[in-house]
């Protein structure tokens, strides 16, 4: 049942254009693509800082290649995740090439996580770097991309929340939300999955020796924290696909992230030797 809209209260009607610059009806610079670009730039900048501070085994000379692997993992995993986990495959007969349209906003964060894990495995093996250390590095920066992505979701007027009468509610009538005020759940998720998790991850990275003494633990903490805030955010978000066992798909898939994160925390680890030595500064790591 939709809430009754108080006549004395005027809600903002979402009318933002998804294009920053538009060249044709379908081609232009979209905020969604810009969000991904800002997320990747933020991660690369932090990785450079980590190495210069002597807290990373990933040399500066390898960061560009590392980020390329991560970008491919996010884009391919995110797109396939959206297509397979959120019923996008049902449109195959009418749009068989839809899965390749990565410029559209059909991306799933859980699919992106899987893609990143596979990219980390490949990069760790080819560059002979510790997989769990690389996992700590990238998860400590990932929330920046989540923040920009959720803000882009809001600009696009997608993934809106449940109907409500809170004063800050937004009407997404132009993007399918009907004439009813709804929670701007995209902003909630940007603050929780993005700003909050980035702050926590950066605090743990810089203020503790966890990356050196317990490789993999920071990644585990991030995954559990993400599962928790994602589950909380789903309370305010309109389900964008059929429920699974009575749970929204965002909540259901987050359970697997929490289990994997718990395993990362409980597994036995061996401390890493990380120091700002001349060998590391010259771009060589053991």
In summary, what is this structure?
With 286 residues, the chain is mainly alpha-helical. It is built from nine helices and five strands. Strand 2 (19-22) and strand 3 (28-30) form a beta hairpin.
Question: Can you walk me through this structure?
Answer:
The chain is mainly alpha-helical and 286 residues long. It has one domain. The protein is 56% helix and 5% strand. It is built from nine helices and five strands; from the N terminus they run E-E-E-H-H-H-H-E-E-H-H-H-H-H. The chain has helices at residues 31-52, 60-85, 109-127, 131-156, 185-207, 210-213, 217-234, 249-266, 278-281; strands at 12-13, 19-22, 28-30, 170-171, 181-182. Helix 3 (109-127) packs antiparallel against helix 4 (131-156), helix 5 packs antiparallel against helix 7 and helix 7 packs antiparallel against helix 8 (249-266).
| Class of secondary structure makeup | mainly alpha
If you compute it from the alpha carbons, what radius of gyration comes out, rounded to the nearest whole angstrom?
20 Å
- How many E-type strands? 5
Mean pLDDT: 90
Distance between the termini: 61 Å
**Percent of residues in β-strands:** under 5%
Helix content: 55-70%
Number of H/I helices? 9
